[in-house]
Design goal:
single chain, alpha/beta, Aspartate Aminotransferase, domain 2, Aspartate Aminotransferase, domain 1, 2 domains, seven-stranded mixed sheet, globular, binds pyridoxal-5'-phosphate
Length: about 375
């Protein structure tokens, strides 16, 4: 049996006619950048997330970058974030000239830990603390971070909250959606995200008219009116084609999310029934609506061998993320060392994502679980 980590061809088959039609409309119009498809998507995503405004941008990475720029974060400022996330989260901070300050994660949810955050700011000299401008909680794998605690600390210190919601479209925290939990919500339409385009794309949500206006200006190099620059922005524009495809997919998103959630539930039952829950740790659902961009298990040892064994048996799997960001070569100037963030380092060394996409079948899941069981029993 073959079980890929993600099978987008199955999803495409279900929406092919609609996609081809809108694509042809755009080809006929020859209007490729921004325009009505992007505006429509912005209003749809705004309502979907419960945010007043949304601004389509070129990628999830650029969503983070433009948010930091709109927030006025720049040279010498500090921004707090998780060391256990996709590189772009911290990369964007460094690219605006600011300094990433890492905070260890909660070992159960893999999200930024409010307790670690408390400890870090307690030990921060006042001078340094004044330079912190924002915090970027990441809603990793599709589950929201502990936003009540994070928001309380942010408000106390007058930091802006920029949500990295690239993996969390539609995920909820106490009834509120990702993208409506901070000043900025950053989403990605990279094809492997739950709501993916046919190429790169992203969007920023915000509840603030002022930030919205700034995002719109920065998206076109900071020119307002055109060719008159009070600000330096960039080319952060979203293609009409991507917006149109994402709009089509958005109509199916809740059904697909339900499929992912059902698959996650079924894995839990299967691992339980096979007596594997003392061996592998399944994702801990702490907040209301986990959208399972990834289903990440943890095993106590031999994670790399399990990965090889699954791949050998035609089961797609991936290590997210093998090197926590505080140990990346490009951030060596920050002066972090192994042991600084033990939970992030443990997760990087022991976690493995297995297939959870909506079209996954019960026999496929059962094959995944059986193969893990065979590994536990000594097969290599
Ligand atoms: C995918 C992702 C990004 C970047 O999005 P792109 O569209 O690939 O630029 C940022 N942060 C996280 C957590 C992501 O998963």
């Amino acid at each position: 049996m073959n079980v890929p980590l993600l099978d987008l061809k199955l999803q495409y088959a279900s929406i092919k006619d609609e996609c081809l039609k809108v694509t042809e409309d755009i080809y006929n119009s020859q209007h490729f950048i921004l325009g009505p498809h992007v505006e429509a998507l912005e209003s749809e995503i705004g309502s979907y997330c419960g945010a007043d405004y949304a601004v389509g941008v070129s990628s999830g990475t650029d969503a983070l970058l433009i948010s930091l720029m709109a927030a006025g974060v720049g040279s010498g400022d500090k921004v707090l974030t998780s060391p256990y996330t996709f590189f772009a989260t911290a990369g964007a901070i460094a690219r605006v000239g600011a300094i990433p300050v890492f905070v260890d994660i909660d070992p159960d949810t893999y999200n930024l830990s409010p307790e670690s955050l408390d400890r870090i700011i307690e030990n921060m000299p006042a001078e340094e603390k004044r330079r912190v401008k924002a915090i970027i909680p990441v809603h990793l794998y599709g589950q929201c971070a502990d936003m009540d605690e994070i928001t309380a600390i942010a408000q106390q210190n007058e930091w802006l909250i920029i949500e990295d919601a690239a993996q969390a479209i539609g995920s909820e925290y106490k009834g509120k959606r990702a993208g409506a939990l901070g000043e900025f919500g950053c989403f990605s339409f990279f094809p492997s995200k739950n709501l993916g385009g046919f190429g790169d794309g992203g969007i920023v949500t915000t509840g603030s008219r002022q930030f919205y206006d700034m995002l719109v200006i920065l998206r076109v190099h900071g020119g307002h009116p055109k060719y008159y620059h009070r600000y330096i922005g960039g080319n952060f524009r979203l293609d009409a084609l991507q917006a149109a495809i994402v709009s089509i997919k958005l109509k199916h998103l809740d059904t697909w999310t339900a499929g992912r959630q059902a698959n996650a539930e079924r894995y839990r039952r299967m691992f339980e029934d096979e007596g594997l829950t003392d061996y592998i740790k399944v994702p801990v659902e702490k907040h209301d609506r986990h959208i399972y961009n990834q289903f990440v298990i943890e095993i106590p040892g031999e994670r790399d061998q399990l990965k090889d064994f699954l791949l050998k048996n035609n089961i797609g799997c991936e290590i997210y993320y093998p090197v926590p960001l505080h140990l990346q070569a490009c951030f060596s100037y920050l002066g972090y060392k192994t042991g600084d963030f033990p939970h992030a380092e443990y997760a990087a060394g022991h976690s493995l994502a297995i297939p959870v996409y909506p079209e996954l079948t019960e026999p496929q899941q059962s094959y995944v679980v059986e193969t893990i069981k065979a590994f536990r029993n000594g097969s290599r």
